Amino acid sequence: MSNKTALITGPTSGIGYVTAIELAKKGYDLILVARSEAKARLVQEEISGRVKADFVGCDLSDITSVKDAVQEIKSRYDKIDVLINNAGQIFQHKQFSPDGIELTFATNHIGPFVLTTGLIDLLKSADKARIVNVASEAHFFAFYDIRKLVDPPVYQDLIVYGRSKLANILFSNELAERLESFGITSNAVHPGTVASNFAADGTGITAAFMKLLRPFLKTTSQGAETSIFAASSPFAEGISGKYLVNCKPGRTSGAAKNRKLGQELWEFSERLVLDHE
To answer: Which chain positions lie within coiled-coil regions (predicted)?
Structure first.
């Protein structure tokens, strides 16, 4: 029998790297979706001889790049058993993607939206496929207003990041509803506050806060545990539409539970992607 195949974005550092390595140890073939081929090659070398590890280049902030990656993956694979939307970024200053979308929202939500919806047929072809969306407790900082997602009039990095993480949960819940009849599960996970390279290049308040707390934060291995659980544990089979913290359902904001907001975000995302074709 062939191995199960897991696709993971952002597998070259932090919790994504640990998740990739641990899934390889469990016998999953990997699709490494990343911007840097050189860094992905290092991951391939680390797991060489255990399983297959395929690299697909992709800039999640660029809709065209994501669509190209989807087509490349479809040309190589006929099924995906696990899709882990792990990659995420926070930007100190307001920036825009090649498509004119605020860069945090483009990278953390629109890219994963295009990738996931583009690969649904491959997920349907697997037996009980799983989708894992790495979110964050930062979603509690989000003041949800769909009009502020593409071009926030006031830019505060943690607030904007929190909105993107709320979008991750809403998207994850909507996927769970839409894909339930196909036996596909979708869960959002909070890795905890991890001492990784997240926000390491910043010089603002958020970066300073992260550096100050670093000695007290989770290790990357600890941070990856819930993603690995949701992706591979037999105890997670059939669990869907949840927000998992420390490998069990956690508390979310009221907005994150709002099905209407999830539907609205899905439709908004579809229109946004169509407008940039």
So the answer is: none
